Amino acid sequence: MKRVVVSIFMFSLLFINAIWALNFRDPHLLFIRDFEILFFLLSSVFLVVSAMLQEKKWIRVFCLVFTAILLVIVSKNEYYFYKYKNEILLNESNQFSLINKRFIVGFNDKNQIKRLAVNGIAGIFLTKRNIQGETHNSLKSFIEELQEIRKENDLPPLIITTDQEGGAVSRLSPLVRQQESLAIASSKGESSYEYGKMQGKWLNELGITVNFSPVLDLKPNRPPSKFDFHSLIATRAISSNPIEVVNVALPYVKGLEESGVKATLKHFPGLARVQSDTHHFSARLNADIPTLLETDLVPFREILKSTSSWLMLSHVILENVDPENPITTSSLVVESIIRSKLGINNVLITDDLTMGAIYNRGFCKSVAQSYSTTINYLLIAYDDEKYFTAIKCIRSLNE
């Protein structure tokens, strides 16, 4: 019985290793990225030792051969990853510069992001990991250094973005003063214009040029799904009434603009009707366009009329327009609905392309589809290493 249990455990681990090898550097495993190779090697060694202790020869041979194959797969993929990563960083003959103009990326490595600034990426995304160990002055100095690099290389200023909504989503706090969420502040009678103007002042002082705020999703009239770990729209949304959302968000946007920071309206076309958390799962929206025009789209359309705000597209599948592709990858939605029917000519940016709703359907396919639309900027924020994979995917299609 003991041998049977050991064999079952060993084959289960072998299966896990197979899935792991085929999904190496997956964004869902980012928390172990720095030690992923070490952990995989230790798991493989454990399998080899377990196999050698098996009495049946076929089990030993099968496990040893299978483990060897998995190690070859991981080694080969790692070799090619670092190979094209170095090629992209070197950017000889500016071969990646045209593609880079469409990307805004997060980062961990300051030297690497300096290199990408030279290579012509459109912008960077700053979040919690970028303020660790930093002071207000040191972060400001680093941003100024990046802008000087751009100037020296005759490139336009780098777009510096962040996610400072207030409340739970305050990526630069405490370097930027923490505020209550816009919804809570406005409910207490605080001027949303002054709220935005003050927030914009603090961001502008650091060198931030674009803020991924405000949230224009209507507040859902239902409890959040138990699998909604990150979207949490119910806690971030201003109101379920679209006119009230406009009355609060429009002055906020104008306040940001007054302080020299662009706002970004999100998450088009609104996540109020969506059950799934697009950070992890595919999500579908089955409301038709006329219905959305009378409800969820009202805040977006009204605020876009009188501001130069950016518009962030969600990864929701708009079933009545394109039942196969998320909005961020759908030329049908972007060109036929957003650009033509709605007449929106503002800057469009995707939500993070390393989110599960996109990554799980095939990262290369999704990035290539998104790049083929008139979406201005593709955002890779959470798992910044996927920027290199994205560039390789697009370049491969153009060769």
From TrEMBL:
Q: Would the keyword Cell inner membrane turn up in this protein's UniProt record?
A: no
Question: What does it catalyze?
Answer: Hydrolysis of terminal non-reducing N-acetyl-D-hexosamine residues in N-acetyl-beta-D-hexosaminides
Q: Where are the transmembrane segments?
A: 37-54, 61-82
Picking any one GO molecular function of the record gives: beta-N-acetylhexosaminidase activity
Q: Which residues does UniProt call coiled coil?
A: none
Keyword Hydrolase listed? The answer is yes
Source organism superkingdom: Bacteria
Give the main EC class.
Answer: hydrolase
EC id:
3.2.1.52
**Ranges for domain Glycoside hydrolase family 3 N-terminal:** 112-372
**Keyword tags:** Glycosidase, Hydrolase, Membrane, Transmembrane, Transmembrane helix
Entry similarity comment? Belongs to the glycosyl hydrolase 3 family.
Name assigned to this protein: beta-N-acetylhexosaminidase
Lineage at the top is: Bacteria, Pseudomonadati, Pseudomonadota, Gammaproteobacteria, Cellvibrionales
